[in-house]
Design brief:
It is a single chain. This protein is of the alpha/beta class. It has two domains: 141 residues, ATPase, nucleotide binding domain (Nucleotidyltransferase, domain 5), CATH 3.30.420; 155 residues, ATPase, nucleotide binding domain (Nucleotidyltransferase, domain 5, 2-Layer Sandwich), CATH 3.30.420. It has nine helices and ten strands. The strands form two sheets. A five-stranded mixed beta sheet has the order 3-2-1-4-5. Strands 8-7-6-9-10 form a five-stranded mixed beta sheet, with helices on both faces. A hairpin with a 3-residue loop joins strand 6 and strand 7. Helix 1 packs across helix 2, helix 4 packs antiparallel against helix 6 and helix 5 crosses helix 6. The longest helix has 25 residues. The radius of gyration is 20 Å and the shape is globular. The chain binds zinc ion. The site of zinc ion (ZN) has 5 residues, from loops.
Length: 335
């Protein structure tokens, strides 16, 4: 296989674009852009960056061979479309369809199909293949504006009946607690998400912290408020991961998203609390990949056809082809 593969991770406030040559290990530096799903500029930003990175790798833009996209919401396994929608998701949006329609503007009429899957699912795929290939069960937890987990066994992704397996953010950590957009109360992500942690840090320190990396830096420098925020966040995640361990008994849990950069200040309280909540605590580590969901999205683009065909046989189709088949009644009653 020749040409360049691209992986894109889209979240509410930004996106990450990765690109690598398929005939060597050459890869462009990861690009993080302040264009997310809350706005309308992300397609232009992703397309421009895709063309630019392919050029940096010495190829014409028409030599894009594969592209995958990670999105921070569940993907309906029947339709391949983003399914369960948090309130900030901008309506009936399918980023794969948006990019597929516009990719020929940059990469010509033979541009590849854009494949899409949930960020945490693709993160689990990437961590399993790149870092924990021998592990029988890997859970990747994405902690950002929401909290979501991808579950990867030695040979398949576990999605659940409706594609919503791994909704760790909706485990109840405070019965009768804060109302959640899902309709329940006291869900983990009403207490643990990046927006809340940053707001808490700004309020407590009166400093304009713009990222969790800044909060982690202040905590490492001894700021007690920032240390508390990371500790409490880690403890909350640890409670939820205790339940995950008890139910799934994973070999390793990889924590991704901005909180991963806080290291032990977040993960040590997480581990300690998890130990209190389960007799089968897994190893908990921070992701070491540049961007695990974007890496997984690139792998989805590269291996998509064979991998997804295999997944489709197991009843979890996410290809656009399969979606078309389903629309024409040939997709079967996947459950
Ligand atoms: Zn909820």
């Amino acid at each position: 296989m020749t040409g360049v593969a691209v992986g894109v991770s889209l979240d509410a406030t930004g996106c990450t674009v990765l690109a690598k040559r398929l005939d060597s290990h050459a890869a462009a530096d990861p690009v993080r852009l302040p264009h997310g799903l809350e706005g309308t500029t992300w397609p232009d930003a992703v397309l421009e960056t895709t063309g630019r990175l392919i050029g940096e790798l010495g190829e014409a833009a028409t030599h894009l061979a594969a592209i995958g996209v990670a999105v921070p919401v569940a993907v309906d396994p029947r339709s391949g479309r983003p399914g369960s929608l948090p309130p900030w998701w901008p309506g009936d949006l399918d980023p794969a369809a948006v990019l597929s329609a516009r990719l020929p503007e940059v990469c010509g009429p033979d541009a590849p199909r854009v494949l899409l899957d949930r960020a945490s699912t693709l993160g689990a795929l990437a961590e399993h293949i790149h870092c924990f290939r021998r592990a029988p069960l890997v859970v990747f937890v994405d902690v950002s504006r929401h909290v979501s987990a991808g579950i990867r066994t030695s040979d398949r992704i576990e999605r659940g009946a409706h594609g919503r397996a791994g909704a760790v953010g909706h485990l109840v950590v405070r019965p009768d607690g804060r109302p959640c957009w899902c309709g329940n109360r006291g869900c983990l992500e009403t207490y643990l998400n990046i927006d809340l942690m940053l707001a808490d840090a700004r309020r407590a320190t009166r400093a304009p912290h713009a990222s969790l990396a800044e909060v982690a830096g202040a905590a490492a420098g001894g700021d007690r408020s920032c240390r508390r925020i990371l500790r409490e966040g880690g403890e909350l995640l640890g409670q939820a991961l205790g339940a995950v361990c008890t139910v799934l008994n994973p070999s390793v849990i990889v924590v991704g998203g901005e909180v991963a950069r806080a290291g032990g200040l977040f993960l040590n309280p997480c581990r300690a609390e998890m130990d209190r909540f389960t007799p089968d605590a897994a190893e908990v580590v921070a992701s070491t990949l540049d961007d695990a969901p974007a890496t997984g999205a690139m792998m989805l683009g590269i291996t998509g056809h064979s991998w997804l065909t295999r997944e489709a046989r197991r009843g979890t189709p996410v290809t656009r082809d399969t979606r078309l088949e389903s629309a024409h009644g040939r997709g079967g009653d996947h459950a």
